[in-house]
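Pilot study result, target chain (173 residues):
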Amino acid sequence: MKYLALGGVALAALAGCASYVAPVRDVVATADVRDPAGLPRAVATATQQRNAIRLQVAARNMAPGTYGAHVHMTGRCEAPTFESAGGHWNPTNQMHGKENPRGMHKGDLPNLLIGADRTGRMEVTIPRATLRGASDSLLDSDGAALVIHAAADDYRTDPSGNSGARIACGVFR
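Predicted structure:
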């Protein structure tokens, strides 16, 4: 054993026993969200942060207003209705909405607010969620999608918050 004295404190170092720990890199998935005509409307980025997913949405070229947005359980976005994205991502079998006493789905998100400049941003943390590697991960065998709806989410009506038609969709990759 070798000893190294620094500032009056002796530190023991085992020769030949040094180990390297590689830095942990964030697991990231992105979705290019498009309307039925294929025009870009938003980009969504999902980043694994410990035991949660941080979701960021940057929208553009949308009419000013309030829109429901949800993570849907299937990574398919077939226009014009985007029904191929399935229902909300709900691995814990909850009801819909943060105001529902029996809610909420993991895929329930805050409303997306679009300003007069036709842009909007949303950031939210989905607790106790993983992107990959678990049976209830967002990116399971059939993937996931971000869907923007025509109307605001009321945060309580099951299953979709009365948020109306699906007007844009993007598959997480």
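One observation from the pilot: Confidence is low (pLDDT under 50) at residues 1-24. A full batch analysis is planned for the follow-on phase.
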